[in-house]
Amino acid sequence: MTDLLFVVSAADHWTLQDGTRHPTGFWAEELVEPYTTFTEAGYTITVATPGGRTPVVDPGSLEPDAAGGEDRAAALKTSLDKLHPVLADAVPLESRRAEDFDLLFVPGGHAPMEDLAVDERFGELVRHFVESDKIVAMVCHAPAALLPAFASGGRWLFSDYRLTSFTNLEEVQAGLADKAPWLLQDRLQEAGAVFSSGDPWEPHVVVDRTLYTGQNPASSRPLAERVVADLSARST
C-alpha cells in the first residue's frame, strides 16, 4: 500500500503587487487529474491543508476557456462535487509527519504562492521527505512551496536541481505578470534551481532525483502518471 500526503493550499486569494487580493485557490485540473490518477493506482490519500481549513477552487479554473471547453468544465465541476467531502475533511498539515507517508504531492493555482511559499514548517516537512529519499511532486505554481525548504546547513534544498513550474511567459499570457509581486520562474532561478521549460501550455515534466515537477495544468496527469510508473518500478 502506498501512502500519499496530498497537500493543498488553504489560501483563497493572492496578494498582488498593489496590495489588492486576487481571488484564487487550487486549480481544478491540477487537483482532479492527479487525485484521480493516484486513486486509480490504489494509493491511500490523506488530504492536508494549513490549519486543516477546507481548500477552495480557483473560480477561473472552471471557466470554459481555461478548462478546455464547456464539457470539460462541467466534468471538472462534477469531479469536485464528488471530492467535496474529502476536501472538507482535510487534516491539519501541521500534524503530518514525513515518516508516515511514501510521497508528497501539491497541486497548483496561485494559492501556494500566498501560504505554502512562506511556510517554514512546510519547508521542514519537505526536507524530511527529501532526506528520506521519498518523492516530492508539485505542478504549475505549486513549486513555490519548495522555496522555504532548506538543508541543515542553511543552503536551499533544491539548489542545482533541474525543475520546472509555470513560466514567466505563461504568466504574461495569463495576464497577471505585471500585477504579480514576484514571478515564480524568477524566484526559483534566483534561489539556485536549474530551470527547464517546454512550450507554453503544453505538458512538460521534469524529474531530478526525487523531485518531480510539472510546468502547467496540462502537465498534471502526465506528472502523476510518471510518479505512479516510477514508484511501481521501484517496488519491482
From TrEMBL:
Protein origin, superkingdom: Bacteria
Alphabetically ordered keywords of this record: Glutamine amidotransferase
Pfam annotation, one family: DJ-1_PfpI
SUPFAM superfamilies: Class I glutamine amidotransferase-like (SSF52317)
Residue runs in coiled coils: none
Ranges for domain DJ-1/PfpI: 28-228
PANTHER family xrefs: DJ-1_PFPI DOMAIN-CONTAINING PROTEIN, PROTEIN/NUCLEIC ACID DEGLYCASE DJ-1-RELATED
Protein known as: Type 1 glutamine amidotransferase domain-containing protein
Organism, scientific name: Rhodococcus artemisiae
